[in-house]
Write a structure and sequence with these properties.
Layout lengths: L21 H11 L8 E2 H8 L3 H13 L3 E3 L5 E4 L1 H11 L3 H17 L2 E8 L2 E8 L14 E3 L4 H8 L3 H8 L15 H11 L5 E4 L6 E9 L5 E10 L5 H22 L4 H13 L1
Antiparallel strand pairs: 1-3, 2-3, 4-5, 4-9, 5-6, 7-8, 8-9
Length: 283
């Protein structure tokens, strides 16, 4: 292991350096440089963060990209974490409170509605699916655990964006080149802000062909004990499965009840969130 490779062993452990693989260690260190604040980085930034030559960083990043652990951002020069990183973490997350509480509810939600059910969180401008149950319809959902989808174009993303102060939404999408998926997808910060303001008045978001023309979905917020929106659950199915009115009333109520059940399991109490919701509305 050369002098440029910085290694901090787990607490209480003194590993034998003879068995350390420097290349693997550097790759793991590169992955760990990504955070909520640094979701996209260039090779030069990664090289500086890990204190290795840029040529070495290039080879490691190339390998991580080939394996799917990194992916290129829209501009082609920056990199972000790939879904396999989340899939690895899912084994750890699966034992944690949110997914532990949500899984039986999501399974029942799938059985009651016949639609695929999902649990998603926001990462930057994406929503990431961290739990999923395939529905009993003709729609084979591509939303696997670890899948990233655009927050501004999807029902779960709209739920999660509507929980943010408008100032944060604007900052998040400043300079963003909007991609549209249907005629209803926001194509500018202005149209997104208008959509978020409308969505904030709703208890859940109904998408009837909003992201995919032939797919209907409903998403509702999951709140933690502080009343903050921590995740969103959703169901999706072909629009041919339900009459629109039934989907927007009975199925919507079932999804909202499921979200409320998960929120209660996380310690959410309705009165506790009133202050949080009011503060976000004022922002």
């Amino acid at each position: 292991m050369d002098s440029q490779t910085v290694f901090v062993p787990p607490e209480g452990r003194t590993p034998d350096p003879r068995y350390i693989v420097p290349g693997l260690l550097r790759g793991l260190q590169i992955l760990r440089t990504f955070s909520r604040e640094r979701q996209e980085q260039t090779i030069a930034e990664l090289a500086r963060a890990v204190r290795i030559p840029r040529s070495t960083a290039f080879r490691i990043v190339y390998t991580l990209e080939a394996a799917g652990f990194l992916r290129r951002a829209v501009d082609g020069t920056r990199y972000q974490l790939g879904s396999p990183v989340l899939e690895l973490g899912h084994s750890y997350l699966a034992g944690k409170e949110l997914i532990d509480i949500a899984n039986p509810v999501l399974r029942r939600l799938r059985d009651e509605t016949l639609a695929s059910s999902h649990l998603a969180v926001r990462e930057g401008r994406d929503v990431v699916y961290i739990a999923r149950f395939q529905g009993n319809t003709s729609l084979v959902s591509a939303k696997n655990v670890g899948s990233h989808l655009p927050a501004h174009g999807t029902a779960p993303g709209r739920v999660l964006l509507s929980a943010l102060p408008l100032s944060e939404v604007v900052a998040l999408y400043e300079g963003y080149e909007f991609v549209t998926y249907t005629k209803d997808t926001p194509d500018s910060i202005g149209s997104l802000v208008s959509l978020v303001e409308r969505d904030r008045k709703e208890s859940s978001i109904v998408s009837w062909g909003f992201y995919e023309a032939e797919v209907a979905s409903i998403a509702a917020p999951v709140r933690n004990s502080d009343g903050k929106v921590e995740a969103a659950i959703s169901v999706s199915c072909p629009i041919s499965v339900y009459e629109r009115e039934v989907f927007m009333t009975r199925i919507r109520r079932i999804v909202e009840e499921a979200a409320a059940e998960i929120s209660a399991g996380l310690g959410y109490r309705r009165a506790a969130s009133a202050t949080v919701a009011k503060a976000n509305s004022a922002a």
